Amino acid sequence: MSSLLPAQDKYPTNYFIAPLDIELKLVGTFGELRSDHFHSGIDIKTGEVEGLEIRAIADGYVSRIKIRSGGYGNALYITHPNGFVSVYGHLQRFIDPIKSYTRNAQYQNESFSVDLYPDKNQLKVVKGQIIAWSGNSGSSTGPHLHFEIREEVSQKTVNPLLFGIDVKDNTIPIINMVKIYPFNKQTTINGKNEAVGFFAKRSGNVYVPVKNDTIEISGNIYFGINTFDPFNGGQNVNGVYSIQLFVDSTEIYSHDLENFSFAESRYINSFIDYKEYKQKSRRIQKSYIQPNNRLTIYNHVDNRGIIHFGEDGTHQITYLVKDIKGNEAKLSFYVRGKIGEISEKKEKTGGILFNYTGQNKFETTEVKFDLPGKALYDTIYFKYKVLPKTKDAVTPIYQIHYDYVPLHSFGKLAIKVDSLPPGLKAKALIARIDNKGKPSYSGGKWNNGFLETSIRQFGNYCAMIDTVSPTISPLNIKNGKTLAKQNTIKLRIKDSFSGIKSFRGTLNDKWILMEYDAKRSLLTYRFDEKLLSGKNVFILTVTDKLNNTNTYTANIIK
Ligand SMILES: [Zn+2]
After folding, report:
1. Ligand 1 midpoint to CA 520 (Å)
2. Cα of 107 to ligand 1 centre, how many Å?
3. What is the domain partition of the chain in residue ranges?
4. pLDDT, tens digit, for every residue of 227-256?
């Protein structure tokens, strides 16, 4: 739970400067709802270009340098003496000496990806100093700076806008939709045991339901809301800071996005209506805490957000939604409680009881599924089905419950595979089959005639074979070419199924640093001392996750 001190008083507001010397506009807010996580920082617009100067927000030292083809791409972490760490992601390049420090380590490890922890005397920085240039590296979908402030000891990430870093915003949040959910089978909402949703529209400074009918409820329910925050002058909508829910004048529920730990970020799948998200791509934030949801962003929640309407009487329900600048959107509507209406829907049975508290196991002759305790947010009736084999599969497709039910931790899935020619055993894998029938690699190691892997998503799985090697397409070299008017070698590498596991480029048998941009399938070597004058032999080997390899060789002349 957040502490009782107002968030603004817990963090120094005059200590840090902004990481960019421009008017800050956000394309992503702290705690914004993302796929399987809450956004851990803010995304600052860089005007659709790369190469803006990034400044150290205070004195400190570079305590971590992480280079990856995905994730934050080229990222710097600076530890400050006041107990906070600032993080800068998707960078284009670093200044020297950070650049040469990183390059040395990459050559020493013969690896593009590195995760380095310099000690506090190696790479000191001062407040306002340029440390890097903004970019679009890693899994970024457009140039921007991903910026975080973390508490050094707790490793919790904190909303950077609580440190006095200013963003202009006087636009109130948008409330799009409210949904009312029956808590159990005895509840009725407008006479049925089904969730009811309605859209809202703005009327002056408040929101009202588009169709303003009183909703009749008998029994236990909870509410959920679909809401966003637009910024001044921005086309995109971001996440809101806080949500409060009142029945008449009593607060039933509130949360805010002051801080959270990375370990709890996946609880987002319990925080939202996951089924609605999976089926309609709409994120409804539930004002209800499932039994195994351990998120700490909640402030005050009565009875986990479950509200009883039993006696005749009308109640005003009010949602208050705020952005971090305190701009507030309000939505009110009415519900009428009814006595003891009985649900017409029959209790559905079937499936195997998987209790959220303990370990759960399922086993047939062809499939084993093993789920550790606390992997589920609530108790479920586990469903299993054998579906027909598709032409590329070597087993039937096994339905392991429903993909719209979220899993918090990994379970172990084992699929029996027989009658494989011995040569193909090493090329077998477990594939997840999505709603459109598209397979994706999900691992797989042999154990006693079964392929085994860990899965963190329910859904359809089968065993398949991958014998196809990655492809290599040179973009600016060919065998025998004289490299007169260029200072890079670029190649595109792709793998059709299991994905690229590793690559290795050499010049004259010596490893060279090739930067890998996975989202563009692009490998780049920037000319350095490894390229000799005269003739050079360039070799690139690319390997996928089933160890299918491809090699490209070219003699090049400098
Ligand atoms: Zn980001």
Report:
1. 19
2. 29
3. 7-163, 174-337, 352-465, 471-557
4. 999 877 667 789 999 999 999 999 999 999
Return d(Cα 145, Cα 480) in angstroms, integer: 41
Give the Å distance between the CA of 544 and the centre of ligand 1. Answer: 28
Torsion of CA 232, 233, 234, 237, to 10 degrees: 40
**Rg (the chain; Cα; Å):** 27
- CA 40 to ligand 1 center in whole angstroms: 7
Which class for 358: exposed (0-12), middle (13-18), buried (19 or more C-beta within 10 A)?
Answer: exposed
Spacing, Cα 144 to ligand 1 middle (Å): 8
Helix (H, G, I), strand (E, B) or coil at 539: strand
Q: Does the structure show a pLDDT above 70 at 341? A: no
* DSSP string for residues in 258-322: SEE-GGGGGGHHHHB-HHHHHHH---PEESS--TT---S-EEEEGGGG-EEE-SSEEEEEEEEEE
CA distances from 21 to 46, 53, 159 (A): 11, 8, 20
Question: What is the whole-number distance in angstroms between the Cα of residue 258 and the centre of ligand 1?
Answer: 16
Alpha-carbon distance of 273 to 404, in angstroms, equals 9
Q: How many CA atoms lie within 13 A of 96 on its CB side?
A: 2
41 Cα–ligand 1 center, Å: 6
**Helix (H), strand (E), coil (C) string for 403-420:** CCCEEEEEEEEEEECCCC
**Is the domain covering 7-163 a CATH 2.70.70.10 domain?**
yes
Residue 181 Cα to ligand 1 midpoint, Å, equals 32
Amino acid at 266: R
Structure tokens at 497: 């199924």
> Cα(237)–Cα(19) distance, rounded to whole angstroms?
22
**Interval 397-421: pLDDT, tens:** 999 999 999 999 999 999 999 878 8
Q: Comparing C-alpha atoms, which of 450, 556, 525, 535 is closest to residue 106?
A: 525
Q: Which CATH topology does 352-465 take?
A: Chondroitinase Ac; Chain A, domain 3 (2.60.220)
Q: How far does the centroid of ligand 1 lie from the alpha carbon of residue 36, in Å?
A: 14
Q: Which residues contact 361 (CB under 8 A, 6 or more apart)?
A: 368, 369, 370, 371
Q: 2 pLDDT exceeds 60?
A: no
CA angle in degrees (0–180, nearest 5) for 167-171-175: 125
Specify the amino acid at residue 416: K
Q: Do domains 7-163 and 352-465 have the same CATH topology?
A: no
- State in Å: Cα 65 to ligand 1 middle: 17
With respect to CATH, is domain 471-557 assigned 2.60.40.1220? yes
- Residue 8 confidence class, pLDDT cut points 50, 70, 90: low
Structure tokens at 184: 């159990």
Query: In the chain, what is the straight-line distance between the N-terminal and C-terminal CA atoms, in Å?
Result: 63
Ligand 1 centre distance from Cα of residue 146 (Å): 4
